[in-house]
Amino acid sequence: MDVSRRVKNLLLQICNMYQSEHRSSSIFNMAVIVAALGYFVDIYDLLLFTIVKAPSMRAVGSTDATMLVDSTHVINLQMIGLLLGGIIWGVLGDKKGRLSVLFGSIILYSIANFLTGYVQTVDHYAWCRFAAGLGLAGELGAGITLVTEFMPQSKRGLGTSMVAGIGLSGAVAAYFTFFITNHDWRLCYKIGGCLGIVLLFLRIAVVESGMYNQVKQLNIARGNFFMFFTNWKRFRKYILAILIGLPTWYVVGIAVNQSDKFAGQLYGSTTVDSGRAIMFAYAAIALGDIVVGFICQYFKSRKKGLMLYYILCIASLVLFFSPFNNSDTRMYWICALLGFSTGFWAIFITMGAEQFGTNLRATAATTIPNMVRGSLPLINLMFLNLFQKNWQWPLVKSGIVTATVVMIVTLIAFYFTEETYYKDLNYVES
């Protein structure tokens, strides 16, 4: 078995010699640009529901009494779509190619966006967001995989940081689009669909990964999701790759998303707009994702850059729950600081992609971020159901303890995660 694997990897390295000499060293090559714009549309659509939730839910029949249940139904179906889509697109990315996922995912969520602009009932809205979630799930993972395989080792971290940094600004675009269109939420969704179609034409200029093209010639399993669970070493790497990303969705899904409620508990405010807080947070996340690439480049280490951001995240959470957070202005600034401190989305996905061979890389890079997104309902179970409903803890105490648990789990996973900065990606899993 070891001899066979060595022979396959040797053949793969030889086949990639010519292709590696022709990789672009620019962090603004076509693969990076198209992947970044794809993620821009992804985030625009993913965050749009949070921004337009109130008027759009009322337009499809929700009332103040049913708003919470109805909106939760819609967002839950979107998250289920993301989880299922992450597995489906990840497998297809390794079986059929990275470009096939980029084309397929954009077509699906562009259509879903257009249809969302015409929904008339809560159920229609929910199923359209489910379809959008399925499509959105494939965007970032396939783009990150393509960029990591297209760029040389010394620049791939910078390339993926640019993808996330530019892409995450889609949340800011969604926020301002809602106001520019005079709160016409249906038009906002239609604009998202149009952006997807424009992106579809840009992708024609992108070529398939040379590493993947060579792996197709080898008689090995590609895109087998269950391979993550049939080998202890692979399973361990896969679980750790998910756990190191948990703070991102605690910050966005609980601290920032519930910033209006926290403001009421912390200093009695009723004027904090959680949508505005999300806009500030995502603008800072985008900046953080660009900066982290240069930090990792400076240290020649993914883990050192990630640890620096963890430290900043912990400090930001301390500020968030401290007496210092005593005005709306400070709340928005701290939400922005929290956003910047979790601007390691691209690096943690890059580390996930770098953990696995070319025949499983797209599956890993696509499923890992969607598993992290899917962890939010579990974190919410602890924060809301366990601590507040069952144990009758106040909001702030529940938030502090939940943050503490998330960070402890993350830091333990980080400790056991391997450094991937210098890792050669020309190998396969067997």
Overview of this protein structure:
This protein has 430 residues and is mainly alpha-helical. It has one domain (26-207, 229-416): Growth Hormone, Chain: A (Up-down Bundle). The protein is 76% helix and 0% strand. It is built from 20 helices and no strands. The longest helix is centred in the first third of the chain and has 30 residues, at 30-59. The model is unreliable at 14-23 (pLDDT under 50).
Helix/strand layout:
Blueprint: H1 2-21, H2 30-59, H3 67-95, H4 98-116, H5 122-136, H6 139-150, H7 156-168, H8 170-180, H9 185-202, H10 210-215, H11 232-243, H12 246-256, H13 259-267, H14 274-299, H15 302-320, H16 328-341, H17 345-354, H18 361-374, H19 376-390, H20 395-416
Helix pairs in contact: 2-3, 2-5, 2-6, 2-7, 2-8, 2-9, 3-4, 3-5, 3-18, 4-5, 4-6, 4-9, 6-7, 6-17, 6-18, 7-14, 7-17, 11-17, 11-18, 11-20, 12-20, 14-15, 14-16, 15-16, 15-20, 17-18, 19-20
Features of the shown structure:
430 residues; Growth Hormone, Chain: A; 20 helices; mainly alpha
Alpha carbon gap, first and last residue: 9 Å
Query: Uncertain spans, ≥5 residues at pLDDT below 50?
Result: 14-23
State which percent range the strand residues make up: under 5%
Bulk shape = globular
Number of domains: 1
The residue fraction in helices comes out at over 70%
